[in-house]
Design goal:
Number of domains: 2
Structural class: mainly alpha
Oligomer: single chain
CATH architecture of the largest domain: Orthogonal Bundle
Number of helices: 6
Order of helices and strands: HHHEEHHH
Strand content: 5-15%
Distance between the termini: 30 Å
Number of strands: 2
Radius of gyration: 19 Å
Largest sheet: 2 strands, antiparallel
């Protein structure tokens, strides 16, 4: 999906070339078919090639994935998810200030 988002649209061959340690071409095609079946990709035909493009914008897909991750691994708790991230990350003072600002903004907006 990252490669398709980066390029906007891509063929299986283009995706295979862009992968750092690519599986077989057949495996790439299978994964694309699965992603299309799940509604993440669509394709159009260009001669004999299928050209894949995402069905939703990247930011919308990332929000959905994050919601699913929080629901699945953190019992729906954003607090637990953020705590886990903070536990794993080595944040600079600047990053901590940015996070504090985001929390302040959320408080003001009543989120």
């Amino acid at each position: 999906m990252d490669i398709v988002y980066e390029h906007g649209r891509a063929t299986a061959a283009e995706i295979a070339v862009a992968l750092p340690d690519p599986p077989s071409y057949s495996a790439v095609r299978t994964l694309l078919r699965i992603l299309e079946t799940k509604g993440h990709l669509r394709h159009e035909t260009d001669g004999l090639r299928y050209v894949y493009s995402p069905t939703v914008p990247r930011d919308q897909a990332s929000r959905s994935a994050l919601r699913n991750l929080v629901r699945t691994f953190f019992d729906g708790s954003a607090t637990q998810a953020v705590a886990a991230l903070l536990d794993q990350a080595k944040l600079s003072e600047e990053e901590l200030e940015r996070l504090a600002g985001l929390i302040d903004e959320a408080r003001k907006e009543g989120r």
